[in-house]
Predict the structure.
Amino acid sequence: MKISYKLFFSIIIVFIVSFIIYGIFAYQRDLNNYIQDIKTDTKTLAKVLSIEFVTVWERDGLSFSLELLDEVNEHSTARIRWVWLDSDNEIRFKPVIDCEKILGQSDRDVSSFINLDEGKFICTYLPVNLPISRTGAIEVYEDLSSVIDTFFINNMVHLGIVALFISICTFILIWVIGYFMLSKRISGILGFIKRLGAGNRSDMIAVKGNDEISTIASGLDAMRTELKSTEEMLMKERDEHIKILEQLRHMDRLAVIGKITSGIAHELGTPLNIISGRAKLLNSFDLSHDEIIENANIIGEQTDNITTIIKNMLNFSRRKKPEKKPVNINTIVRKTIDMFGLNKEYRRVSIELIENEKDIIGNVDRIQIQQVLSNIILNSIQAIPGEGKIEIGVSIVSMTLPGVPAGTVNKTLSLYIKDNGPGIPEADIENVFKPFFTTKSTQGGSGIGLSLVKDIIKDYHGRIEVENNPEGGCCFNIYLPIIGDGS
């Protein structure tokens, strides 16, 4: 509910309660005044009749005096009677009020009795001095039941009309004030907050005035300015962080390339010797046409081998912006294994790919995945003292990864790299992914390789775990979201 409506209903409730209390007191006051007016009228009527009554009595007797009262009753809303105020009394002349109560107020010329409980009436007595020994009085009886009910209804209708009129005026006034001073300005603030939450830091809040709402608006606008400044600073720091991270990743790739290519001279020497020998044979001019073609084909094949080796190294070491696209994960693994086969020293460790599925297509950056595999494989090779074995498995599983709602199951790439080396000391397992942590400082280890691996996996909203194998060695398990498989 809008605040103007809440304000209106709150004021109306307070107004109604106050008006009810006022109405009760006003009704009681007006009723008392009304009864006092009736009391005065009955007294006046009794006094006027008493004079005429005594005159007729003295001239014509009691019977003619009573006839006078009957004639007056025919034209009056009150009931007028002659009553005797002594104990020896007939029923027709017995007063409504007890005689003792009436005589108890003998100090007054007129006595009035009001009953607002059951019966509701006012009874006025005017004692009359007669030339006889008995005491009598004129009784004026006014029934108040219908009068009070009518008065109550008229009073409530009057109060209701006034209350309705005031309520309508109050509603119009509050609506106008609430709309222009509250709702419209608060709606402007809410719209500003929504735009701010959506990332719009340029729009200024337009709320005029010099009150609490305008103070809030000014504070929000100052917060917008601070947020914009802080956001620009954070964006700048983030860009610098990404730039430094990419530099570290590039340096790490170069380090891996340097270690892999330390024995590449032998790999290039063999095809170069073959090319040199075949070129000399061609230069002798003693070969047949078929032999010339055969030697030319061999030279071409060896040249392609050298080109492939150098191209793979350049692609891996080249610094470029990450580009995610659908690629075959098995192909990336095989190319990475081929790179390590170039180094004669690393051939003491066999690397085997276990293809659980023929084609697994992942939406990844090829160079980043090669960097992840290269760092882990290189760590395994360096950890194995002599001959050994590394096993790489690729498959698809269904699981929930970090960064997605709980219970959401995604199709996920599962990749493990397992070796038969000495394993990782239990005290070091929780530290292997921390920056600059290394157990190979004497071998030139920098301690950034595995930390960069974890950063790359995190960029994919994936997960990486490491554990020691029961049979010896360690195993890295990597889980990445994928877009589909070869099927």
Q: What stands out?
A: The chain has a mean pLDDT of 78.
